[in-house]
Amino acid sequence: MEKILVTGGAGFIGSNFIYHMLEAHDDVEIVCVDCLSYAGNLVTLEPLLENPRFKFVKADITDREAMYALFESENFDIVVNFAAESHVDRSIDSPEAFLMTNIIGTGVLLDAFRKYGNGKRFHQVSTDEVYGDLPLDRPDLFFTEETPLHTSSPYSTSKASADLLCLAYYRTYKVPVTISRCSNNYGRYQYPEKLIPLMISRALNDENVPVYGKGENVRDWLFVLDHCKAIDLIIHKGKVGEVYNIGGHNERANIDVVKTVLAALGKPESLIEFVTDRPGHDLRYAIDASKLERELGWVPETKFDDGIKETVNWYLDNQKWWKDIISGDYVKLSEELLGKIS
Ligand SMILES: NC(=O)c1ccc[n+]([C@@H]2O[C@H](COP(=O)([O-])OP(=O)(O)OC[C@H]3O[C@@H](n4cnc5c(N)ncnc54)[C@H](O)[C@@H]3O)[C@@H](O)[C@H]2O)c1
Fold first, then answer.
1. In the chain, domain spans
2. Best substitution site from 33, 82, 91, 219 to test ligand 1's pocket, by max atoms within 8 Å of Cβ?
3. Angle formed by the axes of helices 319-327 and 195-204, nearest 10°
4. Atom in ligand 1 nearest the alpha carbon of residue 155
5. pTM of the entire predicted model
6. Grouped pLDDT means (10 residues each) for the chain, 342 residues
7. To pair with 204 at 20 to 30 A between CA atoms, which of 37, 66, 190, 321?
8. By alpha-carbon position, which residue is closest to atom 42 of ligand 1?
9. Catalytic sites, residue numbers
10. HEC sequence for 38-62
11. Which atom of ligand 1 is nearest to the CA of 191?
């Protein structure tokens, strides 16, 4: 059995990764550590709580004592660090939690890995936002792994700091790190403050759908399961000390994403409401993922239109999941589930 620690697994991408790993590999055991911040929802993992290959631990990655005790008792083969404060707007309002979790928390995990691990891999889940942005009028430009880090928001700065910390621990202490930098994800279990689920939840209620500025900002969209498959490949076949970009070759202006989702829901474009732009709003992200394709044979499998249809259908079929988040009931439901397993 291969024992994998997944931090932040009660969030969007981490939970999708856990489901993917348990389905794709019979010889994998997962321990999920999550502090259940506002973005963590144990309901998402409820179907796994009795699975003998899965264990949930409520803990904060900045809690050094708790992390050391966990690493000492569990003997992880692989650590995949998803845990993060992840919403740019929140980082602009109050950066501190981002510095704590994204930088200090990553540092604590690296120390725990060094101190107790015979682990073969520490994988840091990062973002294309560490590269800053690209101009809208230069469609020929893409981020490669060599693009200098040039961050815009407290969020991206905290993620870039964590990346540098990982690379320093590789160079100085030989911690076997890999880093992946991914573009915007979409899919099931995404907290409804992010663009696509926010749009779906509001449009279904015939509420206005807010779009920053003129909606011209361009993002490269990747279906979450394609991201999970890429990380699965990198932790097993990627080379230590390396950074891998992950992207969908799916550049879309925000306004076009909004229109696609409204069309999939059968809702009118008159619901779109342009709102004052986010300060420091990055213009365009576009990933060159050719290293991952060349070295590990990864290609995104899901076409944007298919992925969006699947995603919209999931939010339509699972309205209780996101309505419980909007009402706040998910906090109580998560606590009830915690009570059952502890
Ligand atoms: N969502 C995207 O499009 C995207 C794109 C590229 C990279 N990423 C990166 O992927 C990772 C996961 O992103 P996401 O969208 O799933 O985020 P998310 O906000 O949905 O989930 C984050 C999870 O981390 C947990 N968490 C937060 N602080 C913690 C702490 N101190 N200790 C333990 N757990 C903690 C939360 O409870 C939550 O379950 C992040 O590192 C993010 O930077 C996200």
1. 2-190+222-249+281-303+329-341
2. 82
3. 90
4. 43
5. 0.97
6. 98 98 98 98 98 98 98 97 95 95 98 92 97 91 96 96 98 98 97 92 94 92 97 98 94 94 94 91 92 97 94 96 97 97 85
7. 37
8. 86
9. 128-129, 155
10. CCCCHHHHHHHCCCCCEEEEECCCC
11. 20
